[in-house]
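The records we work with from here on pair a chain with its fold. Each token is a code from a learned vocabulary of local backbone shapes. A record is reproduced here so that you can trace the correspondence yourselves:

_____
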Amino acid sequence: MTKIILSLVILFAFGCNEVQYVDTTPPAIPRGIDALSLENAVEITWIPNTEPDLRGYNVWVSDRYDGRYQFLASVHEPIYLDRTARNGRTSYYAVSALDFDGNESSLSSDVASATPRPEGFGVRLTDYRSAPSLAGYDFSTYSIGPFDDAFTDFFFERFNDRFSLNVWDDTDIQDMGYTTSLDEIRKAPLSGWSPSGSVEAIPGHTYVIWTWDNHFAKVRIRMLNPVVYYLIGHIRLPKETQH
């Protein structure tokens, strides 16, 4: 009888050791996906997940909003720089989260898009009264042209000792104040556009322009004399604030 009882106890002990918890719950779907257009690159960021067993994230890309997403990279932090992006080509990004047990969330629902654009440096504009054909600028072609051309996004004015950047009625402009570089302004503002369509041109200031064809750009003044020098680049406005 003693031997039979001992055998049962041993079998029961082995049975307990074989019971293991298996985690099949994926992390939460990443939120707040944002994409910043750069020169032949896009910076993707999102709100960090808070799960204690989070291992990292997978970043996905597509050439269409509702297209098939392809794996781009695995990262540990909520930021990724896509150096495969090319100027003028729009890419759509989504992110999934992974834990240490191999569980992966669905792709983020708030897909972000970006279109890298080249930046112009040392561009020179003249006063629209003295040289009207060299006073305007067109962001779509990155070219100087007539201040009153249908595709001109903004133009330069010098009146007495005051320098101004001006836009037409179908375009908005706002002075974002002094910046040390063009990259400090990462998004367009929600409000505060100049009611007159004119702002004072001040060296070191960066300006955001909401173009007539619903794009967004930024301009930074480098130097002023009878002409204006500036840097140009594109920024993206959050979807919920667009026209």
